[in-house]
Write a structure and sequence with these properties.
Radius of gyration of chain A: 21 Å
Largest sheet of chain A: 6 strands, antiparallel
Shape of chain A: elongated
Strand content of chain A: 25-35%
CATH class of the largest domain in chain A: Mainly Beta
Oligomer: homodimer
CATH architecture of the largest domain in chain A: Sandwich
Helix content of chain A: 25-40%
CATH superfamily of the largest domain in chain A: Jelly Rolls
Structural class of chain A: alpha+beta
Distance between the termini of chain A: 18 Å
Number of helices of chain A: 5
Order of helices and strands of chain A: HHHHHEEEEEEEEEE
Chain lengths: 193, 193
DNA sequence: TCCTACCGTTCCGTTTACGGAACGGGACGG
DNA sequence: CCGTCCCGTTCCGTAAACGGAACGGTAGGA
């Protein structure tokens, strides 16, 4: 596995592409960024082109200089794409645990069409949806709510619930699932990729 | 910079601690995980103890075998901690761009005490706050709103605004900043931190 | 008690990521 | 036209991350 520099399962040069994009976004030359980040030009060049397998330290030096967290260049391929039905795509952004509950945050897209159903979750789970664009009709199947851009919906998801885009514009929203502590079940089940 | 193995600005052995925790959580021995992940025991041992500066490839091999995304072991120390005033901590979780806007999502904690002020952002920026625990009073300084667990606040943040915990319980919430596209200003200007 | 099995760490030779310097190429200015 | 500047890539010696093997320590079984 440690044979070819370019990759090894993980799409290594994807990281390079992101870094190059971020660098050019800021109008920095390779030489300049390398100097600011305190790494060699050869290193940065190889990193961006995916011909090297960077050290965590190197990667951090560069991303820190770019002003983004490490996750910004790694999150893409590591995300866990989920599809409920075919027209509802939800992408896991982050999981974090507080003293009282575990949270899963998703970015969500609902395409126009018939309502998409989602089965009941464990007891105590609540869903929080904030709509960014489009109009969403969602919630328990027997009494869903409607939300437009900037609006917010919330329900306990221990009953079957549905998602639908109102009108022909796709809906973009964030979805936050809140699992009371001690819940969450097995975690290794839904491994990415 | 590439001198001492342990770290170089980035808290490297924090990553090791997370990996060790994840491994033990699953009841795996170091030897077993090393074999499963296809890395040497020496490598994994050094990684967990923070005495090495792992390659992205190595780190991925291990996290993939543990069934977690790379971000799960990096998110902590790689996050950009922000302090507005002293009692409001906001941690950047994710930045993503849609067709119409750029979003920055923060996890937020407000400690009890006097209201914390935040200066105005660019025109068109909106803030969306969802409260998980505690009671938050926040919004434009002249007419803030109040939200309890599960509740939601939103305002346009082109005027000075404030955050305050109501009562003596700290507030935990998510904060979403929405920058209209083409805005974002000097990319590094309005960066948190 | 001794033997075996497995644990995690350490030793060590090999592989490779590292930064500095050299390089070719394009963009201006004299 | 040529000198200068900066771009990004390539060359190369050095430093260090890599995996395999050897090591000490702890259980559990014969």
């Amino acid at each position: 596995m440690a044979t070819a520099p370019p990759a090894g399962g993980h799409d290594a040069d994807q990281v390079g592409r992101r870094i190059r994009a971020l660098r050019e976004e800021r109008g920095l030359s390779l030489s300049t960024l390398a100097r600011l980040a305190g790494v060699g030009k050869a290193t940065l060049s190889g990193l961006e082109n995916g011909t090297r397998n960077p050290t965590l330290e190197t990667l951090y030096a560069v991303t820190a200089q770019l002003g983004v967290p490490l996750t910004a260049v790694l999150s893409g391929p590591a995300e866990t794409p989920t599809v409920r039905g075919a027209a509802v795509g939800a992408t896991l952004l982050e999981v974090f645990t507080d003293t009282d509950a575990t949270y899963e945050l998703y970015r969500m897209r609902v395409s126009p069409g018939p309502p998409q159903l989602s089965p009941a979750h464990q007891a105590g789970v609540t869903e929080h949806v904030t709509v960014f664009s489009g109009v969403l009709r969602a919630g328990p199947v027997d009494h869903p709510g409607t939300a437009g851009p900037g609006e917010y919906l919330r329900w306990t998801s221990d009953v079957p619930h549905s998602y639908a885009a109102v009108g022909d514009e796709p809906v973009r929203a964030s979805l936050l699932l809140r699992y009371p502590i001690g819940d969450q079940g097995g975690r290794s089940a839904a491994r990415p990729e």
